[in-house]
Design a protein that fits this description.
The structure is a homodimer.
Chain A: H1 7-18, E1 21-25, H2 29-34, H3 41-54, E2 61-64, H4 66-70, H5 73-89, E3 95-100, H6 104-112, E4 125-128, H7 138-146, E5 150-156, H8 163-166, E6 169-170, E7 173-174, H9 175-192, E8 201-205, H10 212-216, E9 226-230, H11 239-246, E10 250-255, H12 257-260, H13 267-278
Parallel strand pairs in A: 1-2, 1-10, 3-4, 4-5, 5-8, 8-9, 9-10
Antiparallel strand pairs in A: 6-7
């Protein structure tokens, strides 16, 4: 039998093959209008289908943003099921951006909806928010490990208000640093049982945080997982900013508006443009 | 014209009338089985309908837990729409327990799904998770104020892992203390424009946190909003624990399993039993 490949290693291979870019599926009402689609659940469904299909020739990951589906209620969630199912059929790696976080059986309920074969919102990965502590995410970690899924846990976000929580001091460092360390420890345990050095627990760290990590004594540059980095493109970070913040770590740049603004028919080219910028050429 | 009544003041009046109890609608699979219902979206729909109807003679608030609906995908979310609509028809005050938290237009997307008339998951209140900072919740605060809805922001949770984030030190105190202070400042601003001393921004503080707040220098006892306190009943907190933690503040005790375990036909009596315990008789 082959050893199973954890979802972090699987994603890292896709990043080598297709480039380190994750395209957000963010069906903003104004984007729907610009694309000539109705501002409705049907419009969201069509929007997502276009993104999934136009990028089916290759992108490391797609990241549907749940909030823009939730705005349309159960019908919006039906569009999300459709989007995730279609993406899976097309061979995409999907990261469901839901920032879930709770405790015990409630956390398990959220995980069950996403992180197992046949789940209604089945995806390869899920984003999590750790205000209740990294340890509270255990039910999601257990399910992700069982079914070879990845998790991306919020660590350092680029919005200015994030510092009020993420930079706070703990007996062992900072809130953000402790969460990074817990993710790294989990990855180390999982990697020790396999032949890879990249684990399935990723972080979310804004590409535009500047020198915040260094000032806090947090070393993001040798992480044994993948940093998912929003803020590339429209929000201003390019190749140099990514190198400054992340050093030699694996960084999956998340871009949404920059690519989606190109509109139907232009997504693949916009993806290629962003990838060229990311490579610093 | 009458001054509008903010949702915090509205809920406080209901707590005086019906007693300070919020009943969770948590359709766990094992509860569905115990109730003789199928473990499916239809079972969840029937379960929620029974709770809504049996408690329609009076309870301060109902709190559907989103995770237990999400497990069934879009069909589960349709059951949630049904639950919230039926609760509104029966005159209930609803708190959607979703612990949402994001930034900018994404946070606005979540708020739009809940906090306005005609929203698909329209509720009187929504729970929020502030890992991205209290300030990141602004789009939800704005919409809640515009449409007289309440918000409950996680402050101090009773799970042991919560301390790793919530107890962390900031230049002005602690993460939890700063969020409490920000909520209080928002309430003070809103109350100053009206004739009430209870604002619409509540907290979530575990009833079983013991002396954690005191040790951290956080004063929960004179808050100008409502503390939503999980952990009453099945998790072990009674009248004395609530008084210890919350002093003279308004506390809305959240109970789920203790009441739901009574099964169909027994919910109103179980509610009355918990209320009697809460009153310390």
């Amino acid at each position: 039998m082959n050893a199973r490949v954890n979802a972090g290693a699987r994603l890292a291979k896709r990043m080598e093959r297709y480039g380190p870019l994750c395209v957000g599926i963010d069906p903003h009402p104004h984007l729907l209008e610009n694309w000539g689609l109705p501002v409705s659940a049907q419009g969201v469904r069509d929007f997502a289908q276009i993104v999934v299909d136009e990028l089916a020739d290759g992108v490391a990951a797609l990241k549907p943003q749940v909030a823009f589906f939730e705005s349309y209620g159960a019908a919006g969630y039906a569009a999300l099921e459709d989007c995730l199912g279609r993406a899976r059929e097309r061979g995409h790696f999907t990261i469901l951006d839901a920032k879930r976080g709770d405790i015990g059986s409630t956390m398990a309920g959220y995980a069950n909806a996403v992180l197992r074969p046949g789940a209604p919102f089945e995806a390869d990965a899920l984003t999590l928010s750790p205000y209740l502590g990294f340890g509270s995410l255990a039910p999601a970690l257990d399910l992700a490990e069982e079914h070879d899924r990845a998790l991306f846990v919020l660590v350092l976000t680029s919005n200015p208000e994030g510092a009020s929580v993420q930079h706070a001091r703990t007996p062992t460092g900072t809130v953000a640093g402790d969460i990074l360390a817990a993710a790294a420890a989990t990855n180390a345990r999982i990697c020790a049982a396999s032949s890879t050095n990249v684990g399935p627990i990723g972080t979310v760290v804004g590409a535009t945080i500047g020198d915040a990590a260094r000032r806090l004594g947090i070393d993001l540059t040798e992480f044994n997982g993948i940093h998912l980095a929003p803020g590339v493109g429209a929000q201003g970070a390019g190749a140099r900013e990514c190198a400054d913040v992340f050093g030699s770590s694996r960084v999956l740049a998340a871009a949404s508006r920059t690519i989606l603004a190109a509109g139907p028919g232009g997504l693949a080219r916009a993806r290629d443009t962003v990838l060229t910028e990311l490579r610093g050429h």
